[in-house]
Amino acid sequence: MRKPNWLWITVAFGVSLFLGYTIFTAAIGAFFPAINTISKPLLCSGEFSIETTQYSYKPGQVGWQHNIYCDGRNITFASIAVTGLMISLVIFIIILIYFREHILFPKNFGELATDLKQTEKAKGKSPLERMSELKEMHDKNLISQVEYERKKDEIMKEL
Do the Cβ atoms of 82 and 76 come closer than 8 Å? Predict the structure, then answer.
């Protein structure tokens, strides 16, 4: 059985939350407040209405305020939160479907890592060859005694 790549799934969920809340609910919802009607079945069983008020706080500048009501009760924040969550979940599902190959690690994921280590060792020189090169470099004063000892310890640990 293939194991899930939880890091990738977590990043995809964070991206979907950002897109759902920031882009759709906040930005598009400011221009098209009717997008918040998708939260009506979860929040309101009575009369649902969206009230838009235009105001001017400086000459030449105009602002808009949208309030969402259910049976005369202001549910603006709850409606925006639920709408953002619903849109985020839809985006998350779309991301998971589109990137389904990245969600799960390959079946031979662990084998790939051990194969890589073996090929690296096969390409490199043997510890004996490396030790002789290190000794030669030390004898020619190309490296210090401290560097020689440190490198020698590293090679010895590989044995």
Answer: no
Q: What is the pLDDT of residue 15?
A: 93
**Measured distance CA(7)–CA(70) in Å, rounded:** 40
Residue 10, in any domain of the structure = yes
- This prediction's pTM: 0.61
Q: Which residues constitute the domain of residue 66?
A: 6-103
Residue 77 lies in a domain: yes
- Both 99 and 129 in a single domain? no
Q: Which of 80, 47, 86 is nearest to 66 (CA)?
A: 80
Whole-angstrom distance, CA of residue 78 vs CA of residue 126: 67
Quick one: 141 and 78 in the same domain?
Answer: no
Amino acid identity at 7: L
- Examine the domain organization and report whether 20 and 96 are in the same domain: yes
Q: Based on the domain organization, do 87 and 19 belong to the same domain?
A: yes
pLDDT less than 70: residues of the chain: 1, 108-124
Neighbouring residues of 39: CB distance < 8 A, sequence distance ≥ 6: 78, 79, 82, 83, 86
Residue-wise pLDDT for 53-98, tens only, equals 998 888 888 888 999 999 999 999 999 999 999 999 999 999 999 9
| Strand ranges in the chain using DSSP code E only, listed in sequence order | 48-58, 61-70, 73-74
